[in-house]
Amino acid sequence: MVGHGQPVRTRSDSNWNVPEPELVLVVNQHLEIVGYTAGNDVSCRDIEGENPLFLPQAKIYDDSCAIGPGILISEPDSLRDLPVELSIERDGVEIFNDSTRTSQMERRFEELVTYLGRELDFPDGTLLMTGTGIVPPEEASLRPGDRVRIVVGELTLENEVASPEPGARLSGWSFPYEGQRYRTIR
After folding, report:
1. Which of 62, 71, 106, 176 is the most buried (most CB within 10 A)?
2. How many domains does the chain have?
3. Letter string b/e over residues 147-173, b meaning 16 or more CB atoms within 10 A of that residue's CB
4. Is residue 77 part of a domain?
């Protein structure tokens, strides 16, 4: 996982790599939704499409996910109709742009959190990526140098796409201090 402004990667063995803009729920140790951030779940659609068993390889690899630029402390009801936007820029030209709203999600946030916590404990809380409603077409597959911009509610996450080699790790990540509404993720 990387933060805002840090490079994301694609897999070298995939030909269809896409960013997936997602609302990321911030959940405390009691499985209560206490806020949100923006997420970019880079996915290898061709690997994922070959076989459902390949889903972990298509989504879980070094630097395949970005979150940030911070955490906005919010009540769950305020998250139910947030705008979610995605744009991909290549060589200074926007090649893809789409948007949706969190109100279009099929499952309620509380249902997702309850299912996650059914057999797992999170003594320090956790982040839950809620899924995407936007999947760019194959012709918008990510390339090194592309710039990805994701807007979720009030937060804007931007990352450049690096070459498909393992890169820098996220550093300086922490939950907000008590009473603080917004915390930068470095």
Report:
1. 71
2. 1
3. ebbbbbbebebbbebbebeeeeebeee
4. yes
Question: What pLDDT, on the 0 to 100 scale, is given for residue 57?
Answer: 80
Q: Give bridge partners of residue 88 from the DSSP assignment.
A: 96, 148
Model confidence at 151: pLDDT above 90: yes
- Amino acid 166: pLDDT: 55
Facing residues of 22 across strands?
Answer: 39
Burial class from Cβ neighbours inside 10 Å (0-12, 13-18, 19+) for residue 30 reads exposed
Is the bond leading into 69 cis (omega within 30 degrees of zero)? yes
Q: What is the pLDDT of residues 40-79, one digit of tens each?
A: 999 888 888 887 888 778 787 788 899 999 999 999 999 9
Residue with tokens 């694609």: 10
| Residue 185 located in a structural domain | no
Is 131:24 a contact under the CB 8 Å cutoff? no
Is 171 inside any structural domain?
no
The residue range of the domain holding 68 is 2-165
Six token digits for residue 55: 């889903």
Predicted structure pTM score: 0.84
43 beta partners: 18
Determine, yes or no, domain membership for 178: no
**pLDDT, the chain, mean:** 87
d(CA 57, CA 152): 26
CATH number where 40 lies:
3.90.850.10
pLDDT of residue 179: 47
